[in-house]
Amino acid sequence: MNISSVLTSVLKRALSRTKWCRRPLPPPPRDAQNVMKLIIDCDAGVDDAMALIMALDYVRKGKAQVLAVTCVQGNTGLDNVVVNVLRTMNAMDIQVPVYRGAKDPLIGPYIRHGPPFHGEDGLGDAHFDTTPDLSVVSSEHASLAIARLVRDNPDEVTLIATGPLTNVALAIKMDPDFTKLLHSFYIMGGNLNGRGNITTCAEFNFHNDPEAALVTLTESLTPPRMITFDLCISQALFSLDWRKNKLGQKATRQARFQNKIEDTLLKAFEKYYGDYSMWDQVAVAAALNPGQVVTEASSACASVELAGQHTRGQMIIESRLRQDDRKNNVVIVDKIDKTALENMVLDAFD
Ligand SMILES: [Ca+2]
């Protein structure tokens, strides 16, 4: 094979993932009152907290209704996640329904891999004098609630998953058809090029529960829109100076809360990344405002490695050309408008 044919082959391969869709994603539907309906499945988590504040900002502005925040193990254990979600809502002084979900991945117990990036408690081990009122948490399991709420609001709900996909996969296994009734579905998780952040080859959310990620990607009847690790560390980077001296100078209650829980994490950003990266915030921004935030997206056929010694949890994209039976099952968000993301973050902390 000469150089020219090699280049042609590489180019064709690169285009093979992108030929189905290269346009901004359409805005979510709004009801007669112009309110979009959200379910947020999260493992809060410092970036989940900021993402939740962004969604609640849309609630206080009357632009969104959060039908449920469903909690899953991940950045920390389930009990901490529930408390962290309640603390975040208290910081915004907005209460929405909260549900407990899976305390373990589908297979095997909850295991902490490496030092906890978000602190032992998931919110940077910041000290709080009060404990949220846990009696407000619903007795219904998160997975049941996800399927029920989507069925109660057909074609209206945007599901945003910013943690391991355990709750979502359980919901799919119990009620596969509910995913057909989603308006849209966003996932922060997975990677494109075998570069990981929890292992060499895997992104944290997928590595935490690879079986759940596989079920979700291959069995959801609404293709999820993927906010990958690759996207976040290449296009959602802000300087630490911006984080500390622009966002960090906001004086609202939610801004003081975020500064407090992120204090330790910022030191980790300085040490490991050199910049401030957003992850879950990108998924929520894209879901709330896809017309502005998402500037390029492409359909792809994705799976998840379950067995690899080094690659368990890695997202796999089928890119061979001669795969006529390939079924695209995800939409990869390729490019975002960083300014739109920045403005949404800054607005949420006003
Ligand atoms: Ca998360």
UniProtKB/TrEMBL annotation:
GO terms for molecular function: hydrolase activity, hydrolyzing N-glycosyl compounds. It comes from the Eukaryota. Residues 38-341 form the Inosine/uridine-preferring nucleoside hydrolase domain. It holds the Pfam family IU_nuc_hydro. Belongs to the IUNH family. This is Inosine/uridine-preferring nucleoside hydrolase domain-containing protein. It comes from Notodromas monacha.
